[in-house]
Amino acid sequence: MQTFCPHWLCPGLFFSFYLIWILILPLLALPSASDYLHRGWQRLLEEGESCTDCSPEECPTPRGCLAGVVKDTCDCCFECANLEGQICDLDNTNYFYGKCGDNLECQLDMEDLRHGEVPEPQCVCLSSTAVCGSDGKTHSQICKFMEAVNAHPEANLTVIHEGPCESAPQILSPPYDIWNITGQDVIFGCEVFAYPMAFIEWRKDGTDMLLPGDDPHISVQFRGGPQKYEVTGWLQIQEVRTTDEGDYHCFARNTFGETVATASLTVLTPDQLNMTGLLLPKPRHQLFEDDEESEDGDDYY
Ligand SMILES: *[C@@H]1O[C@H](CO)[C@@H](O)[C@H](O)[C@H]1NC(C)=O
Ligand SMILES: *[C@@H]1O[C@H](CO)[C@@H](O)[C@H](O)[C@H]1NC(C)=O
Ligand SMILES: *[C@@H]1O[C@H](CO)[C@@H](O)[C@H](O)[C@H]1NC(C)=O
């Protein structure tokens, strides 16, 4: 008779269930989106069970750990280490948020302090040197390289050498086709990645002459950036005339090769614009003129 006991018949039992839910719900109701918190609370709960016996054979095998593995709070089982940029325990334990992986260190983010926020400890890569991988790709530093290694273990990725892979230039952001009315200023941009650094040249279709030549209403500019190992070139034509119409080429060259990207300039007189009406396409997004995107301005070369 006592084996089956629905809670409306057994207030005592019901009450203890109720109590358990009161205690556990706040933990479950915490932002489940945040893995850190989830793992943090899990650690605290496991801590509660204390770390007496360690049976490594009973440990689950952590999978897909992009930053490698570290020992858990009890120094028993392996678990995934935290990635670059993830929040961590400043005292290098994995008591709550967890431990950073290889080549990473838990540091306070002083940027937060500057922005008036409470600084958060996060995993920071100890190296900022790019490496060239056996995949022929430049990885921005060893921590990003290790993420690629762990993401594709079957690729047997190795470091070929420090520094970026030597390569022919790649045009990351080509110049876009432009149209405008006579008398307006137009500007083409060309963003290139290359190592060694590329030289950029501008030419107009049908002429061998390097721009700007001796034409005072044309000017060119180059600057390193916006990212490391990149260079960006601009071609500006002031007060465009109909004779400026044509195709413009951005040539990027280094010792390993040359790449070219082409864009056209269409120049309309106000009359022509009136006739064509408003059917013309809107100009596409232009390259940044003052690169606010750039984070570390002195870091280019
Ligand atoms: C990686 O190494 C393993 C064992 O050495 C080999 O069987 C496998 O074919 C290699 N994979 C690649 C992509 O080279
Ligand atoms: C024409 O040029 C002016 C000045 O450079 C610019 O503000 C305008 O957006 C351009 N118009 C088109 C359609 O590209
Ligand atoms: C455009 O056309 C309208 C009438 O069709 C005319 O009133 C206006 O002056 C024209 N504008 C220009 C710049 O030619």
Structure, explained:
The structure is a single chain. This protein has helices at residues 11-29, 35-48, 110-114, 142-151, 270-276, and strands at residues 69-71, 78-80, 104-108, 121-125, 131-133, 138-139, 159-162, 167-173, 178-181, 186-195, 199-204, 218-224, 230-237, 246-254, 257-268. The protein is of the alpha+beta class and 301 residues long. It folds into 3 domains: 58-125, Omega-AgatoxinV (Irregular), CATH 4.10.40; 131-165, no CATH class; 168-276, Immunoglobulins (Immunoglobulin-like, Sandwich), CATH 2.60.40.10. A 4-stranded antiparallel sheet has the order 8-10-13-12, with no helix packed on it. The N and C termini lie far apart (83 Å). The model is unreliable at 1-33 and 288-301 (pLDDT under 50). Residues 178-180, 184-185, 283 line the site of one 2-acetamido-2-deoxy-beta-D-glucopyranose. One 2-acetamido-2-deoxy-beta-D-glucopyranose binds at residues 270-271, 274.
Give a quick set of tags describing it:
disordered C terminus; Immunoglobulin-like; 4-stranded antiparallel beta sheet; 301 residues; alpha+beta; 3 domains; binds 2-acetamido-2-deoxy-beta-D-glucopyranose; 4-stranded mixed beta sheet; Omega-AgatoxinV
